[in-house]
Amino acid sequence: MDFKELKKKLSSGGRMSDAEAVELLETEDIFSLGELANKVCEKKNKKFVHFIRNRHINPGNICVNRCKFCAFSRSAGEKGAYAYTIPQMVGMAKKVAGKVSEFHIVGGLNPDMDMDFYVDLFRALKKEVPGVSIKALTAVEIDYLSKCSGIKINKILEILKEAGLDSMPGGGAEIFRQKVRGKLCPEKIDGKRWLKIMETAHKAGIKTTATMLFGHLESFADRVDHLRRLRALQDKTGGFLAFIPLPFHPKNTKIENTHPLSGLDIIRTIAVSRLYLDNFDHIKAYWIMTGEKLAQTCLLFGADDLDGTVIEEKIAHDAGAESKEAMTVEEITRMIKKAGKVPVERDTFYRRLKVWN
Ligand code: SF4
């Protein structure tokens, strides 16, 4: 790869091609890749690295899908299955009132958690803990609510928005290409449906993030195919707030880890995402999935966001993530400063609330 030529092309508004992205996912010249990705990142975000005070709430792990890569889900009645009640979740939320600006709510596809359940949950959270934004329900969960209720997606979104939904997380994207997706999660909606639901959400004024689960059965070309479809939708709607590449954790899943991810592979994927997704403002190194130390390294390779304090995390830890479940603001800001960057506390919509000098 001729990095000088690539830099010239990108800085004059050219777009990275798929072939270039695949080549960069394999490059041994990690420093040139990092330098370029960091430059593009700082052009968009200066030296700011964002984080949010958030609280994850996973309403339940009972799921009718049972995707093969998922270590979190259980069938109803199985050992370890749980389902929180609305008062339990409101109780958790009240404990962090005044300390967080966002609730991040995702869970399994549980027939007992229907539209009314989520409408009541969001209303109760808005009433009992006002001023905290609700980021909830992936496209997969929205699709399930639609199927169970017979209500169309745009109407579902309208009802949930009215009840308090502020934005949606980008989970459930996994890998779009069906030959891989069919092996990972045959029961799950396909990539086209995921993108369609996100498009509908964006049109309804609901901003979302987007994810990609990588490091399992996919090829580099599959990763780039995923990025291409996201870039195309972002061109159309502009509704994605950030992109979050999620390294796969195989423990307790049904996917054999034939090619365990290396730290360098994660770093390259972050950097290529930064360069390829020129229409995304933010690339997140989700420290829960990468581990704290690698997330910090990613800040020099194109990432400008670390997610947040989290407080309780079940999904990645059930699959063997070795990171902690929570970080304090002091720990996050120290991590960012030690990488030579400037910590900025943000809200759900990436509005900058406070610079932590
Ligand atoms: S990834 Fe989501 S949809 Fe698939 S089994 Fe796990 S909780 Fe269910």
Describe it.
Helix 11 (263-276) links the parallel strand 7 and strand 8. With 357 residues, the protein is of the alpha/beta class. The protein has one domain (17-355): Alpha-Beta Barrel (TIM Barrel). The strands form three sheets. Strands 9-1-10-11 form a four-stranded mixed sheet, covered by helices on one side. The protein has a four-stranded parallel sheet with strand order 5-6-7-8. The protein has a three-stranded parallel sheet with strand order 2-3-4, covered by helices on one side. The radius of gyration is 19 Å and the shape is globular. 44% of the residues lie in helices and 14% in strands.
Label this structure with key terms:
alpha/beta, TIM Barrel, four-stranded mixed sheet, globular
> What is the level-2 CATH architecture name?
Alpha-Beta Barrel
With strands numbered from the N-terminus, the spatial order across the biggest sheet is: 9-1-10-11
The hetero compounds bound to this protein are:
iron/sulfur cluster
Say what the CATH topology is: TIM Barrel
Give me the secondary-structure category. Answer: alpha/beta
| Principal-axis shape | globular
> How many structural domains in the coordinates?
1
